[in-house]
Structure formats: C-alpha cells, structure tokens
C-alpha cells in the first residue's frame, strides 16, 4: 500500500470515528492590509459536545470579529459564549454561515446537541474592512457520516454527443463496468457526488436539446432523472463544496453556483466569463479553495472545435477574497486534456486524462505543477467528459 492510499485510509477513519485533534490546532491568519495585521487562532479542545477556541492579537490593527464557518451546525447549538451570532455573515464575501463573535480576542466555546466528527473548517478574522481565513479543526455536524465511496464514476462521449455512464473499481484492478445503456444526444459533460447524500449529479453541454440541464444519475443502473435547466447553455464542470452547494463552470457564462440542487437547479453566476473553457473543477476539502483546469484556445477560437488542446492552466478561486489566481501556467508531463479533477486529503489533485488509447488516471502536485499519470485503465471508454472521484476511492499507484 503506497503513501497516498495510506492517506486515504486515514481520511476515511477520521470521518468514521472523529479524532478530535486530527487537523491543525493553531493557525496564523494574516489580513491583506498595509499594517501586516495578524491574529493567532487556536483550537483548544473538544470535550464531549463542547468545542473551545482562543483568538489572540499578533500584529497590526485590532480585531473586529472572528467566526467559524459551520453551515451544517446552524440548528445544533445548545449553548455558547455570550455574544455569539449564529447564521450568515454579510460582512464577508460569500455570506458564510457559522458562529461569530464581535470581539478583540479571548477564549470562546460552544456546545452542540451531540458529538460530531472533527473535520477541517474555515476560521475567519476581520479587522476594519479586511479579513483573512485559514483552516482549523471543527465539528462536521453531520449526524451519520456516510461510508467511504469505493468506486469512481465517469461518463464517456461517443461521437459528437452520445453519453455512456460507467464505473471504475480501484479495489478490483480498476475494473470498468458499464452503467446501463448509451444515452444518444444527451451530451453529458460533468459529474460530481454530493458530499453528504452521496447522490451522483450530471450536467449537459450545448450539443443536446436539453442544453445546460442538471440530472441525478442512478449509480447502479445509470438511469437519469432530469431536474431541469440551470439557465446556462453548456456545463463544463461540476464540484460540490463541503456545505452542499454545487458549483460549476459554463463556457458561455462563467463560474456559477446552485444553492441546493435538491430544491432548485437555477444557477447564480458568481464570476461572469464567456471566453474560457475548463476541463473540470474541484473544491478543497475545507471549502476554502476551488481549483480549475483551464483548456487553452487561440483568440477567437471555438474551444469545441480545437484540434490540439496543448498544455492546460491550473488556477484557483478563493471565495473569502473573491480572487482568481493562476497556480500553474502549464502542467508538465501532460499527455492529454484533463476532464476530471478531484482534491485528495493531502492537497494534491486526482485527475483523469483522456487520450488515444484507454483512460489515464493520475495526480497533480500544485506545488510543482507536475502531472504524474500513474495508471492507464484498459477500456474503450477513452473520451471521458466527466468523472466523480470520491476522496475515499483508491489512488492509482
């Protein structure tokens, strides 16, 4: 068993048993101002159902308020340190939901209705008009942690727009199994799995009569349930954030979010763009960073008609700042177009690459901009348009 597979096994164990000190215990949060404003946030303890934190001034301006982003906990608080505010924080971009104190520092606790697993959560510190964020240990507030998914799900593009769903079982030598029959002219371009319900969702492109539709996919039979139009024309990628919101990229519209696909599939445009195509998107496990693999194109070129994709660009979007920044101008050792992107527990990115023969799986190290393709799956499904790779599914050696 290699190091990455060990990491995945540890991740599953933490999700199941909730080790209280499994993640960062003290973090330094710096704010983007000219005073080098910095605060230290400490995870002090988790005793029973009670979570305790301490925030301290380090440098620069005084603290205005701090918060933990805990969207799943909003109805689960029993008690908390005086002055706490529960709900949305409109003073921070994206209106994060959690528990907040207006304070200059101190020790703060809250008690929940039961014990929950420890997971990485966002901590935000604000001073004047600036704020910064970091990842620290916090409660999941998920009552019954779902079992680790052990299969990878993907969709193959046959010809122009025929779609075939299939599964890959890493535990059985990356065996491939078709899920139902081909869907002619559906043009499915993106997949992802809901982080808590484990429902598999799919999005369609523009080479279909149902342009930009969102679907639920039966993971046993491949049967589709059409949830309706999102309002965008072509969905290139989908990724669930840890709060259950579904984010995507539309070639004609840009970055969008669907607040709750179980109740409405209407897309809200977050970053408008009509010139960029991405292969796929992936949220970091703590919900702080969204990664994207951008498909290159010449000025005026239709991305759907390009002949040679060339090196792809990896960039990230950080909701706390609203900024998009480039991580890698060109990924090295790239052997084809990236069509699937998922974040692993060690902050590397699992990828699927479609090529001339078979399906290539591998890992991107954002620190080195190197793509290492370490497994070729023997299959005729070699034009994968979307992939859902659960964090607990094994990584190719």
- In DSSP terms (H or I, runs of 4 or more residues), the helix count works out at 1
What topology, given as strand order, has the largest sheet?
Answer: 1-2-3-8-5
Helix content: under 10%
Uncertain runs = 1-24
| CATH class placement of the largest domain | Mainly Beta
Question: Between the first and last Cα atoms, what is the distance in angstroms?
Answer: 9 Å
Protein name: SMP-30/Gluconolactonase/LRE-like region domain-containing protein
Keywords: Signal
InterPro entries: WD40/YVTN_repeat-like_dom_sf (IPR015943)
Organism: Thioflexithrix psekupsensis
What key attributes describe this structure?
30 strands, signal, 1 helix, 397 residues, SMP-30/Gluconolactonase/LRE-like region domain-containing protein, Neuraminidase, globular, 5-stranded antiparallel beta sheet
Give the helices and strands, then pairings:
Layout: H1 3-17, E1 26-30, E2 38-47, E3 50-59, E4 65-69, E5 77-80, E6 85-88, E7 97-102, E8 106-112, E9 118-127, E10 130-139, E11 152-158, E12 162-169, E13 175-178, E14 188-193, E15 200-204, E16 213-217, E17 224-229, E18 235-240, E19 246-250, E20 254-258, E21 268-272, E22 277-283, E23 290-295, E24 313-318, E25 323-328, E26 337-343, E27 349-354, E28 359-365, E29 370-377, E30 384-388
Antiparallel strand pairs: 1-2, 2-3, 3-8, 4-7, 4-9, 5-8, 6-7, 9-10, 11-12, 11-30, 12-13, 14-15, 15-16, 16-17, 18-19, 19-20, 20-21, 22-23, 23-24, 24-25, 26-27, 27-28, 28-29
């Amino acid at each position: 068993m290699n190091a990455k597979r060990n990491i995945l096994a540890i991740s599953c164990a933490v999700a199941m048993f909730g080790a209280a000190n499994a993640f960062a215990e003290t973090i330094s949060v710096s704010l983007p101002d000219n005073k080098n404003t910095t605060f230290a946030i400490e995870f002090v303890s988790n005793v029973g159902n009670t979570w305790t934190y301490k925030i301290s001034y380090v440098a620069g301006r005084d603290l205005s308020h701090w918060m933990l982003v805990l969207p799943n906990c909003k109805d689960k608080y029993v008690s908390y340190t005086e002055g706490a505010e529960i709900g949305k924080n409109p003073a921070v971009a994206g209106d994060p939901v959690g528990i907040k104190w207006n304070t200059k520092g101190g020790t703060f606790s809250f008690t929940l209705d039961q014990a929950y697993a420890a997971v990485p959560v966002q901590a935000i510190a604000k001073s004047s008009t600036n704020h910064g964020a970091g990842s620290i240990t916090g409660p999941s507030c998920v009552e019954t942690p779902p079992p680790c998914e052990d299969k990878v799900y993907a969709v193959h593009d046959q010809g122009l727009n025929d779609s075939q769903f299939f599964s890959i079982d890493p535990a059985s030598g990356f065996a491939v199994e078709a899920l139902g029959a081909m869907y002619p002219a559906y043009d499915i371009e993106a997949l992802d799995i809901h982080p808590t319900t484990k429902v598999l969702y799919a999005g369609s492109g523009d080479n279909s009569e149902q342009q930009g539709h969102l679907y639920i996919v039966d993971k046993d039979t491949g049967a589709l349930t059409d949830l309706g139009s999102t309002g965008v024309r072509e969905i290139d990628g989908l990724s669930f954030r840890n709060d259950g919101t579904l984010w995507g990229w539309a070639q004609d519209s840009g970055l969008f979010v669907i607040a709750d696909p179980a109740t409405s599939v209407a897309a809200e445009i977050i970053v408008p763009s009509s010139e960029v195509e991405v292969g796929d998107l992936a949220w970091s496990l703590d919900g702080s960073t969204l990664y994207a693999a951008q498909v290159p194109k010449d000025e005026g070129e239709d991305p759907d008609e390009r002949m040679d994709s060339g090196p792809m660009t990896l960039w990230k979007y950080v909701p706390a700042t609203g900024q998009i920044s480039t991580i890698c101008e060109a990924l090295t050792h790239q052997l084809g177009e990236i069509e699937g992107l998922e974040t692993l527990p060690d902050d590397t990115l699992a990828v699927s690459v479609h090529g001339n023969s078979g399906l290539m799986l591998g890992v991107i190290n954002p620190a080195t901009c190197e793509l290492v393709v370490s497994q070729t799956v023997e299959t005729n499904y070699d034009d994968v348009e979307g992939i859902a790779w659960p964090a607990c599914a094994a990584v190719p050696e």
